[in-house]
């Protein structure tokens, strides 16, 4: 069962209803509308709690997403480009979130900078199809990954704050 912090995070993100992929025409447009509504609500709640940590946008048809994510460590902001494509089997398959500039810098990453979410997030996603969406992937996938990996990469001096360079 999920811990209290995970439950609190989940309570902030509306669940989605439409099970549709980019190949489903009007149904995909409905799903995309739900995705945007959930993202907007999650980002707004994060801003209210002074916990804003990512910005995303998509291409016109909602199949390619890109933006920035950041992690604050010892009062320094570490910012990274983030990107992912919506799989053709979405929402049955979660998106593979990538931080290309960290490619090869941690064992918890696949080729191309795709973060490893197999052990913890993907089973949770599978149990919640089609209710989970992009906001859930950010909150329950990328967020915890950043919280574990970024401090470790900083401690090992694999990444440095940009102002130090």
From TrEMBL:
TM stretches of this protein: none
Pfam families reported for this sequence: UFC1
InterPro entries: UBQ-conjugating_enzyme/RWD (IPR016135), Ufc1 (IPR014806)
GO CC field: cytoplasm
Keyword terms, alphabetized: Ubl conjugation pathway
GO biological process: protein K69-linked ufmylation
CDD domains linked: UBCc_UFC1
Active-site residues (renumbered): 116
Highest taxon of source: Eukaryota
GO molecular-function terms, A-Z: UFM1 conjugating enzyme activity
PANTHER family: UBIQUITIN-FOLD MODIFIER-CONJUGATING ENZYME 1
Family: Belongs to the ubiquitin-conjugating enzyme family. UFC1 subfamily.
Its biological purpose: E2-like enzyme which forms an intermediate with UFM1 via a thioester linkage.
Protein name listed in UniProt: Ubiquitin-fold modifier-conjugating enzyme 1
Species annotation: Dimorphilus gyrociliatus
Source organism phylogeny: Eukaryota, Metazoa, Spiralia, Lophotrochozoa, Annelida
């Amino acid at each position: 069962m999920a811990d209290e912090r995970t439950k609190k995070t989940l309570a902030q993100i509306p669940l989605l209803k439409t099970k549709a992929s980019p190949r489903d025409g009007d149904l995909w447009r409905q799903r995309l509308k739900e995705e945007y509504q959930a993202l907007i609500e999650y980002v707004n709640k994060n801003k209210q709690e002074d916990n804003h940590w990512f910005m995303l946008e998509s291409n016109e048809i909602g199949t390619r997403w890109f933006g920035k994510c950041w992690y604050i460590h010892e009062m320094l902001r570490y910012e990274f480009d983030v990107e992912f494509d919506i799989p053709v089997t979405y929402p049955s398959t979660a998106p593979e979130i990538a931080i290309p500039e960290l490619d090869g810098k941690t064992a918890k990453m696949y080729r191309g900078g795709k973060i490893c979410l197999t052990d913890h997030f993907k089973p949770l996603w599978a149990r919640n199809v089609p209710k989970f969406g992009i906001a859930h992937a950010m909150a329950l996938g990328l967020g915890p990954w950043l919280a574990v990996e970024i401090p470790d990469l900083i401690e090992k001096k694999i990444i440095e704050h940009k102002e130090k360079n």
